[in-house]
Amino acid sequence: MSKVDFNTFEWNPELIDRYNLAGPRYTSYPTAPQFHDGFRSGEFAAALTESNATGAPLSLYFHIPFCAKVCFYCGCNKIATKDTSRCEPYLHRVYQEMDLATQHLDTSRVVNQLHWGGGTPTFLSHQQMHELMQETRKRFALRDDDLGDYSIEIDPREIQADTLPLLRELGFNRMSFGLQDLNLKVQEAVNRVQPREMTEQALQQARDLGFRSLNLDLIYGLPHQTPETFAATLEEVIEMNPDRLSVFNYAHLPERFKPQRRINAEDLPSPEDKLTILEQTIRRLVEAGYVYIGMDHFARPEDSLAVAQREGRLHRNFQGYTTHSDCDLLAMGASSISQVGPTYAQNHHDTEGYEQCISKGEFATLRGMRLTDDDLIRRAAINQLICHFELDGASFGATHNIDFDQYFAKELKQLQQHQQDGLLHIKGNQLLVTPAGRLLIRSICMVFDAYLDQASLGRAFSRII
């Protein structure tokens, strides 16, 4: 059976129409709806202690839920304010949360990955950013050789001339810039006016400072977007030459996210136009030399993400695609989700609930779960497919000490339909996703999901495309 060609994909409207149902994004398996409140602070503490036996390196995530302005499309957990002093009580609790973690973790475990997300992490004052990194370094074994992946999300509207030099000095070497769209009418409709020059200057400054793997975030499906206007934005983005691109689908859920109520639903592109935008975007980026990593991610062939995929080392977790499959992920701050050994733990969503728990000297774990052996096997199968678009049943079975054909007999039978429709090649117990199936990989992964309740899919998840 031939190997996956990561530079090819096939757009089949008939198959997309048939398979474009609601489904998980598989940043975890089992997915977040399966987390339960029987897994709390004590269970998470035990998981941290148990994880020391592996000696695995660490990945640290910090959620900074503050923004100076609200973007109307945003569904993130954030607080809109211009007062940076409001961060102080929150940061104090984050330091306390780190202290709690170090009571259970072997702090000599090297931190190979670190990420600040939000919100807008650069909302913090320069002093607060310096202090947060300093407090982290006091407690954990951060790298000093610039070989780790230390990244931060950037809003170019909220940085000063000396912000990026400070971040580089603090040890960051990767950045993700929010852009969304360059069309002024679209920007005004979502309350995020951001001229090209602003983003381009920040990108160039980051390059000059030695940052690598610079990412730009785009969103399709925003008000007033058309295939023509988004194509124009894409050409300008290609000229900026980012190392990576994330092209996200906007999900309009005003009943869940209050800022989205400021968006007029009549101004949104039709479902047909959204699909046209996505098709044109994938084709143009592949034509421009980007590797279509999968779902909504693209990377230059020489980027570490594309290299990891070619070498079979790509992984997927709550931060999306990553090259650090061997790390235990310790996530701190409100709403953050940790993945430690065979467990998941999610903190309280609201800052008040988060801070109350931490102030009592316990983790702010609201819910989570410990995975069963079956969960771990299925997680590995889904990760292999969603990252590498192939699965060798014989080697997988040997790795996980199962008879693959027997263990997944029901799934292999279900996948016959995917094969008949041209999404998958099956030879014995070898699975190879076709160019047409790459766009619909979530549908293939869903066959291996033991928890899916078809009746509730539409309420819990967005459409696959």
From TrEMBL:
<keyword id="KW-0949">S-adenosyl-L-methionine</keyword>
<feature type="binding site">
    <location>
        <position position="180"/>
    </location>
    <ligand>
        <name>S-adenosyl-L-methionine 2</name>
    </ligand>
</feature>
<feature type="binding site">
    <location>
        <position position="153"/>
    </location>
    <ligand>
        <name>S-adenosyl-L-methionine 1</name>
    </ligand>
</feature>
<feature type="binding site">
    <location>
        <begin position="73"/>
        <end position="75"/>
    </location>
    <ligand>
        <name>S-adenosyl-L-methionine 2</name>
    </ligand>
</feature>
<keyword id="KW-0479">Metal-binding</keyword>
<keyword id="KW-0408">Iron</keyword>
<dbReference type="GO" id="GO:0004109">
    <property type="term" value="F:coproporphyrinogen oxidase activity"/>
</dbReference>
<feature type="binding site">
    <location>
        <begin position="119"/>
        <end position="120"/>
    </location>
    <ligand>
        <name>S-adenosyl-L-methionine 2</name>
    </ligand>
</feature>
<feature type="binding site">
    <location>
        <position position="118"/>
    </location>
    <ligand>
        <name>S-adenosyl-L-methionine 1</name>
    </ligand>
</feature>
<dbReference type="InterPro" id="IPR006638">
    <property type="entry name" value="Elp3/MiaA/NifB-like_rSAM"/>
</dbReference>
<dbReference type="InterPro" id="IPR058240">
    <property type="entry name" value="rSAM_sf"/>
</dbReference>
<dbReference type="GO" id="GO:0005737">
    <property type="term" value="C:cytoplasm"/>
</dbReference>
<feature type="binding site">
    <location>
        <position position="71"/>
    </location>
    <ligand>
        <name>[4Fe-4S] cluster</name>
    </ligand>
</feature>
<feature type="binding site">
    <location>
        <position position="61"/>
    </location>
    <ligand>
        <name>S-adenosyl-L-methionine 1</name>
    </ligand>
</feature>
<dbReference type="GO" id="GO:0051989">
    <property type="term" value="F:coproporphyrinogen dehydrogenase activity"/>
</dbReference>
<feature type="binding site">
    <location>
        <position position="217"/>
    </location>
    <ligand>
        <name>S-adenosyl-L-methionine 2</name>
    </ligand>
</feature>
<comment type="function">
    <text>Involved in the heme biosynthesis. Catalyzes the anaerobic oxidative decarboxylation of propionate groups of rings A and B of coproporphyrinogen III to yield the vinyl groups in protoporphyrinogen IX.</text>
</comment>
<protein>
    <recommendedName>
        <fullName>Coproporphyrinogen-III oxidase</fullName>
        <ecNumber>1.3.98.3</ecNumber>
    </recommendedName>
</protein>
<feature type="binding site">
    <location>
        <position position="67"/>
    </location>
    <ligand>
        <name>[4Fe-4S] cluster</name>
    </ligand>
</feature>
<keyword id="KW-0004">4Fe-4S</keyword>
<dbReference type="Pfam" id="PF06969">
    <property type="entry name" value="HemN_C"/>
</dbReference>
<comment type="similarity">
    <text>Belongs to the anaerobic coproporphyrinogen-III oxidase family.</text>
</comment>
<feature type="domain" description="Radical SAM core">
    <location>
        <begin position="52"/>
        <end position="288"/>
    </location>
</feature>
<feature type="binding site">
    <location>
        <position position="74"/>
    </location>
    <ligand>
        <name>[4Fe-4S] cluster</name>
    </ligand>
</feature>
<feature type="binding site">
    <location>
        <position position="337"/>
    </location>
    <ligand>
        <name>S-adenosyl-L-methionine 1</name>
    </ligand>
</feature>
<dbReference type="InterPro" id="IPR010723">
    <property type="entry name" value="HemN_C"/>
</dbReference>
<keyword id="KW-0560">Oxidoreductase</keyword>
<dbReference type="GO" id="GO:0046872">
    <property type="term" value="F:metal ion binding"/>
</dbReference>
<feature type="binding site">
    <location>
        <position position="251"/>
    </location>
    <ligand>
        <name>S-adenosyl-L-methionine 2</name>
    </ligand>
</feature>
<dbReference type="InterPro" id="IPR007197">
    <property type="entry name" value="rSAM"/>
</dbReference>
<feature type="binding site">
    <location>
        <position position="192"/>
    </location>
    <ligand>
        <name>S-adenosyl-L-methionine 2</name>
    </ligand>
</feature>
<dbReference type="InterPro" id="IPR023404">
    <property type="entry name" value="rSAM_horseshoe"/>
</dbReference>
<dbReference type="GO" id="GO:0051539">
    <property type="term" value="F:4 iron, 4 sulfur cluster binding"/>
</dbReference>
<comment type="pathway">
    <text>Porphyrin-containing compound metabolism; protoporphyrin-IX biosynthesis; protoporphyrinogen-IX from coproporphyrinogen-III (AdoMet route): step 1/1.</text>
</comment>
<dbReference type="GO" id="GO:0006782">
    <property type="term" value="P:protoporphyrinogen IX biosynthetic process"/>
</dbReference>
<dbReference type="Pfam" id="PF04055">
    <property type="entry name" value="Radical_SAM"/>
</dbReference>
<keyword id="KW-0963">Cytoplasm</keyword>
<keyword id="KW-0627">Porphyrin biosynthesis</keyword>
<keyword id="KW-0411">Iron-sulfur</keyword>
<dbReference type="InterPro" id="IPR034505">
    <property type="entry name" value="Coproporphyrinogen-III_oxidase"/>
</dbReference>
<comment type="subunit">
    <text>Monomer.</text>
</comment>
<dbReference type="InterPro" id="IPR004558">
    <property type="entry name" value="Coprogen_oxidase_HemN"/>
</dbReference>
